[in-house]
UniProtKB/TrEMBL annotation:
PANTHER family: SIMILAR TO RIKEN CDNA 4921536K21. It comes from the Eukaryota. This is Uncharacterized protein C5orf52-like. InterPro entries: C5orf52. Pfam families: DUF5528.
Length: 56
């Protein structure tokens, strides 16, 4: 079965789009998790400072 060049191109572009979409979503998830982890440690630090100031 012979495939048209335009069909091959469409399929390749579709595969590329799917790959880039998955990569983008994975990168965004990784960023969100990192920001969450950093904000939690910052929040813990601020809570400790608040407790220290109130007890002093």
């Amino acid at each position: 079965m012979e495939m048209k060049a335009s069909d091959k191109t469409k399929r390749k572009m579709s595969n590329l789009y799917d790959y880039l979409k998955k990569k983008f979503v994975a990168d965004q998830l990784r960023k969100m998790l990192r920001w969450r982890r950093e904000s939690l440690s910052t929040q813990r630090y601020l809570d400790k400072q608040r407790l220290f100031r109130h007890s002093a």
